[in-house]
Amino acid sequence: MKLLVIGGGGREHALAWKLSLSPRVHKVFVAPGNAGTALEHGLENISISSIPELIKFVQIENIAITVVGPELPLAAGIVDAFQASGLKIFGPTQKAAQLETSKIFAKEFMQRHQIPTASYTRFTDPELAHQYIDQHSTPLVIKADGLAAGKGVIVAQTREQAHSAVNAILVEKNLGTAGCEIIIEEFLQGIEVSFIVMTDSRNILPLATSQDHKRLYDGEMGPNTGGMGAYSPAPFISHSLHTHIMHNIIVPVIDGLKQEGINYTGFLYAGLMITPDSRAKVLEFNCRLGDPETQPIMLRLKSDLLTLIEHAINGTLDKADIDWDQRAALGVVMAAHGYPDNPRKNDAIYGLHDLIDELKGNDDFHIFHAGTHMNGKNKNEIMTAGGRVLCATALGENIKIAQQNAYKLIEKIHFDGYQIRRDIGYQGISYQGKSR
User: Fold this and answer.
1) Which single residue of 141, 168, 225, 298 could bond 185 by disulfide (Cβ 3.0 to 4.6 Å)?
2) pTM surpassing 0.70?
3) Edge to edge, what strands does the sheet with 382-384 contain?
4) pLDDT by residue (tens digit) across 225-247?
5) Total domains in the fold of the chain
6) Do 92 and 287 form a contact (C-beta atoms < 8 A)?
7) Domain assignment of residue 407, yes or no
8) Does some domain include residue 250?
9) Which domain holds residue 146?
10) Would you say residue 55 lies in a domain?
11) Average pLDDT score over residue span 195-200
12) Count of other CB atoms within 10 angstroms of residue 2
């Protein structure tokens, strides 16, 4: 069986790698992939990007199933186009993906279906937004309505920062059409976690819980990023809280969409704030797996991912069994110099080939690539090609040991100007320490 994974980041490397481990899979194509997927056994990169060309490729190669990784193809309607051509694809339709592609759609949807989230007000007029800021205390959260490549959410600690964010989005148009409208949202206090499920539009299969670290620097300081590391499971989510999240958030989302004539099939990511009273409120929805949460989650997954996706496509997720490694997994992102605002490209990465050889056959560790490519002149040389470059991921008996194992991998890799956080998993480690 041949499969296709759409995307070229760390999430897609992890997905393609996990799918390739299925005994029924002969090859996984990745469009466009990265240096990691180019080097991975059973994976092959293809340089095709347009939806019509991808459909033609799938038809010619007799691809059994296509899995969509990132949000942009979903927003462009790739699932609708594939389904119209009679092809099997895993991901939500363009209409369903509005939960991610429009913050305003998501907020109004949550209001209609009584799903707990932060209060908000929407604005297209910058002057009215400035007046609102002057009348409210900070912190405030300013969000662009559309997709903004991780740059559309600003947590303003002061009124000055809030005014600056409004000007950047609504006046200076720094985010283009994604920033034609904004919402200003109350700032929620608590612990942020990632809650990801698979759904066939009727049945829901929760994946392992996880926590992402968004800020660039240790201790949740510095600018927001796409994610500097993640680990799984998130120990803050007890059995009762898990039940609460499913009953009050996940099930109402899927049922609410169905009531509005939208069938949702795919991964659904709920970014949640666990409040001090152990309740959960929605910060955002993503209509895909998170990145870098996918990397530790896939390292822990013991079940055949292909079988789970087949169940989802066929509407039989209620018959699916999912099995997890009971150990923790933790991934540390190595980011490029200048990330997130101006990441530098084409720095040579050293130590990767030796590390790949060292880890061969050891399923407790994996280096997932994101922003990498092969040097066109020297095919053995791997270069940086984006903001988040690598995610060194490891298993361990607990979060602390998984953390230690992941940072040991980092010590063996180098490229000029790389940035890492040294505290990935700190909240989970602290929590586990207190609970003993």
Assistant:
1) 141
2) yes
3) 348-349, 382-384, 372-374
4) 999 999 999 999 999 999 999 99
5) 2
6) yes
7) no
8) no
9) 125-180
10) yes
11) 98
12) 15
